[in-house]
Amino acid sequence: MRLVFITLFLATWMSAAAQGKIGYSSQNYLGLLEGEGGSKFQLQTINGAIYKGWFAGVGTGIDWYYLRSIPVFASLNKDFFKKGERSFYASVDAGINYPWKTDEYYNEWGYKTGELNPGAFWSAGLGYKIGIGNDALLIHLGYSYKHLSEEVTTISPCLVGPCPENTETFNYSLRRLSFKVGWNFR
Amino acid sequence: MKKLALFVTAGGILLSFYSCLKDDLTRTYSIMVPVYKTKDEVYANIKSNPSQEIKSPGKIFIYGKYIFLNEIDKGVHVIDNSDPAHPVVKTFIDIPGNVDIAVKGNTLYADLYTDLIAVDISNPLQAKFLKYIPNVFPERNYTNGFVADNNRVIVGWIKKDTTVKLRQPQRFVAYDYVLASAMSAPASAGAAAPSIPGISGSMARFTLVNEYLYTVNHSSLSAFNISNPGDPQKISTRNISWNIETIYPFKDKLFIGSTTGMFIYDIADPALPTQVGQFTHARSCDPVIADGNNAYVTLHDGTPCQGFNNQLDVLNITSLSAPSLIKSYPMTHPHGLTKDNNLLFICDGRDGLKIYDATNVSNLNLKKHVTGLETYDAIAWNNNLVVVGKDGLYQYDYSNPENITERSKLTVNR
Lengths: 186, 414
Fold this sequence. Notes:
The structure holds two protein chains of two kinds. Chain A is mainly beta. Chain A is built from one helix and ten strands. The two termini of chain A are 33 Å apart. In chain B, the strands form nine sheets. A six-stranded antiparallel sheet of chain B has the order 2-6-5-4-3-14, with no helix packed on it. In chain B, a hairpin with a 2-residue loop joins β19 and β20. Chain B is globular, with a radius of gyration of 25 Å. β10 of chain A pairs antiparallel with β1 of chain B, so a sheet runs across the interface.
């Protein structure tokens, strides 16, 4: 069944593309994330298809806010108030946020090990698009959420092991304003 | 212009939510609340009780067909090992605060927090409490921040999970020191009784030689006369160094591991051990074993040992007064070790079990590396290797060094 859907989707895509209705689009952003944890950079690339003012694609990037992570997400945009080469657009992204590092080793008092786990990622916002030749400049302001969790195991001091262990769980739900500027290759 | 104003307005609305952009950071940890019993209740319960699941295995002691396995801070599992391929956990002796064990004849010696106790195991399935000697291990006066009571004993802990909000992103807050079990170590000990072998692991802090039980605590070595096994008598205590970790007997010598070195004590006069040699190494944790001409010391980092070495040191001890280093072998995080003939078995922590041909100690030959288990201590005897791992008690057949095979595993149920 899944194969049938994929085949139908590809057939529709190719048909529409052949008629010049669907085009490839690549949005590439550099921006800032602002929240309680301060200001941090973000990089994103979102690649997909445009069709009658809609854009659907998949994206990834690097998110330096608090704990560096790699969001992987689906993205949906809709242009509106289009005038000439300029338009506004609304965007929604949703996916999973993967920690840059999944484990760490701390040699402190005794020693600790940390294991980071992936969590949800989503964002929404409004953008302004200024067409320049075949491409476009993108300015985007939005809200971004990411979640990560971490299990930290502390092995308490003892002269002869196995020493007692204690595990703590940290949950990080991080809410940020997102401001980013990008270039849209079309 | 109108649309730009709309965009700016929308941005302004978003910015107005700035004060709501709170990061939600939580930390979930466990608080352990002690459960007390009176000493009389505790002594009455030091007997063979129904078997329990192995949850936190500690030190081991092999005595005849039995394996005595410490359950850290809880007591001792008595395992019938008549068939190493099918060991059976027969009974559990409740000894709160227990981490070290040794067996001589019909008597099990164990620590109960600060006290040393003797238990009659003439029938291991019908164990009976005999005697306690108070304050042999004074450094164990506190557990998890709770000071032991003169009349009461901590017999367990109630775990309460607690979630707190963190004010700001902060990955590691100060550790509360409320731990799931005691700040102490497992142990075993031993010596050979003439007929039934009693063998300790290298992590032991008790050991038995003929009519004497020797114990080490943080800084001293004590000798107990056990000619009357059920009535151990403390004969002597002497300060030897700081951060003493393990004790291992070989012939008429005791090899004592500390975080800063290995000490050799002569027990020609068993009541008064006398230091005859010392080997100093970098600060590290270091169980030690010995054979005729060599001592084997594993050094590992972490815990309070504060060292950065993870290695096996092979020492020449033909001159007991001046042990010398033959060679160091890099390891991952070694703990206990054991040797039978020319086979040397190293518990290398997270890196599993390493088995070496030690025919030439200057060039140890790795015969087998068993991975996928975290190992702490081992005893090799009669072609059967018993290994305490984080997830179980393993046994291996090493009768054919070219084909060492796993015989059984008693799984830990944490």
